Amino acid sequence: MSFFHELAHQYIDGEWRTGSGSWDIIDFNPYNGEKLAAVTVATALEVDQAYRAAEQAQQEWAATNPYERRAVLERALRITGERADEIAEAIIDELGGTRLRAAYEVRGASEVLREAVRQSLRPTGRLLPAVSDGRENRLYRLPVGVIGVISAFNFPFLVGMKSIAPALALGNAVVVKPHQSAPVVGGGLIAKIFEDAGLPAGLLNVLITDSAEIGDAFIEHPVPKVISFSGSDRVGRHIAATAAGFFKRTILELSGNSALVVLEDADIDYAVRAAVFSRFLYQGQVSMAANRILVDRSVAAEFTERFTAEVAALKSGDPRDPETRIGPVFNAFQADALTALVDRAVADGATALVRGRTRGNVVEPTVLADLPDGSPLLTQEILGPVALLMTFDGEDDAVTMVNDSPYGLSGAVHTGDAERGVRFAQRIVSGMFHVNDSTVQDDPLVAFGGEKTSGVGRLNGEAVVEAFTTQKWMSIQHGRSVFPF
Fold first, then answer.
1. Bridge-partner residues for 180, per DSSP?
2. Is the sign of the CA dihedral 185, 186, 187, 191 positive or negative?
3. CA 215 to chain centroid
4. Torsion, CA 66, CA 70, CA 73, CA 78, rounded to 10
5. What phi and psi, each to the nearest 5 degrees, are found at residue 407?
6. What is the Cα–Cα distance from 258 to 429, expressed in whole angstroms?
7. pTM over cut 0.85
8. What is the tally of helices (H) and strands (E) in the chain?
9. Is residue 155 exposed (0-12), middle (13-18) or buried (19+ Cβ within 10 Å)?
10. CA-closest candidate to residue 443, choices 422, 459, 457
11. Residue 33 to residue 331: CA distance in whole angstroms
12. What are the backbone dihedrals phi and psi of residue 254, each rounded to the nearest 5 degrees, phi first?
């Protein structure tokens, strides 16, 4: 536990500090309830100190040779690889992630860092033609300055890195507020990696705190020019509205209600495996998870039999057991809420094809079918191991059902004809959609983000250049302009 005590601190201007607040955030293991650490919260004073340190350090960092910035990112990548087992253990202890899920997150974060190494040397400007003779137009790409990052509880190491690594690579400084349930994996652990990689002090700061303590100070502070947030659409709406009042740019990766669609010509066995993974990775606490599984009526009986058998066989319990596929949800409140949600659905007429028990924070998988029209479960995000199984009659019906959601994050379709799948995907309103694969996908080169209430903006690849830089036009007149007066 010394590992957690060491990193469960505020990290401001290169120093590990105790917050000046009057209360502590307690970091618990969600499986066994063990206390991992206590962190005295940061106040608005520390928010100001972190942002001011970032502002001062960023100017020199932006002027640093890009090859020097690249070297820091390369060392961070190497350190992450060397500490992969240690990071995975922290994910298991702090987040209740299974070993499979922990490895998935570490691998994804490493790929983000690898891409950030390349982003350090991305082109910084363009020459454009001019309408006037003798004029030269230059369009420079410049870092925005300081970025505020607010990360979610579910994949805090990966999601944090998706903003932090490219932002630093492009010459910015960063202040991170990790989720209260992930202060180490989403905060201290990342800060330690970059500290040991030789990142100059002040360029990355971590504030462990809560809005109950600081209000909107993290968003409203005059220093950050971009706020990158991952979390619920409810909180995202507030952040967007608050930031807009201060003319700040926002990148919002929000909730989802994704669907996995099985057409009549799909490989059923393969579709079943994809559906199980899409719904139950990390206990379903994934915004891209397949809340809804839609199956053509002509193959529904076969799919349902195989799917429910696979789900019932998933081992639930201790995330340290390599055979465990369903670990704990992140706290007791969520466990109780999921249990109540299933009870209410059944009372309203849904059929539980698989009905899991709740043991502590471990919520065993449930599969619900026959949901009545208008059930709120059909349009809401379900952060837990509850799958909704539905049938449709033909592609048009499936498209209507998939799009009948306020969200538009991810999704998938399974078919024996890949180009048919592409045509289907083109009819869906979402930021991402996958043919013959899982709904849970991430690639460091490809723009990641949602439509509708699933978010604004994109991360990864060229999208982060747009997100974390600004453009400056500079013209040079090599001759003489003719002025009308």
1. none
2. positive
3. 23
4. -170
5. -105, 160
6. 11
7. yes
8. 16, 24
9. buried
10. 459
11. 9
12. -115, -160
Between CA 429 and CA 407 the distance in angstroms is 9
What secondary structure letter does DSSP report for 216? T
25 and 214 Cβ atoms separated by less than 8 Å: no
Q: Cα(174)–Cα(456) distance, rounded to whole angstroms? A: 20
**The two structure tokens encoding residue 57:** 């350090």
Q: Cβ distance 224 to 147 under 8 Å?
A: yes
Contacts of 98 (CB under 8 A, 6+ apart): 92, 282, 319, 324, 325, 326, 327
Question: Is the distance from CB of 295 to CB of 265 less than 8 angstroms?
Answer: no
What DSSP line would sit under 93-136, residue for residue?
Answer: HHH---HHHHHHHHHHHHHHHHHHHHHTTS--EEEE--SSTTEE
Burial 400-433 (b: 16+ CB within 10 A, else e): ebbeebebbbbbbbbbeeeeebeebbeebbbbbb
If phi > 0 it is left, if psi is from -120 to 50 it is alpha, else beta; for residue 57 that is: alpha
From CA 239, how far away is CA 264, in angstroms rounded? 42
Residue type, 60: E
- 482 is written with which tokens? 């003719």
Q: Are 199 and 167 in contact (CB under 8 A)?
A: no
Cβ neighbors of 312 (< 8 A, separation 6 or more) are 354, 365
Beta-strand relationship, 249-253 and 125-128:
unpaired
Sign of the C-alpha dihedral computed for residues 370, 372, 375 and 379 taken in this order: positive
Task: Write down how long the chain is.
Answer: 485
pLDDT of the chain along its 485 residues, tens only? 567 888 999 999 999 999 999 999 999 999 999 999 999 999 999 999 999 999 999 999 999 999 999 999 999 999 999 999 999 999 999 999 999 999 999 999 999 999 999 999 987 789 999 998 899 999 999 999 999 999 999 999 999 999 999 999 999 999 999 999 999 999 999 999 999 999 999 999 999 999 999 999 999 999 999 999 999 999 999 999 999 999 999 999 999 999 999 999 999 999 999 999 999 999 999 999 999 999 999 999 999 999 999 999 999 999 999 999 999 999 999 999 999 999 999 999 999 999 999 999 999 999 999 999 889 899 999 999 999 999 999 999 999 999 999 999 999 999 999 999 999 999 999 999 999 999 999 999 999 999 999 999 999 999 999 999 999 999 999 989 888 99
Cβ 193 vs Cβ 99: under 8 Å: no
The amino acid present at 477, given as its one-letter code, is Q
**Rounded distance between C-alpha atoms, residue 421 and residue 439, angstroms:** 14
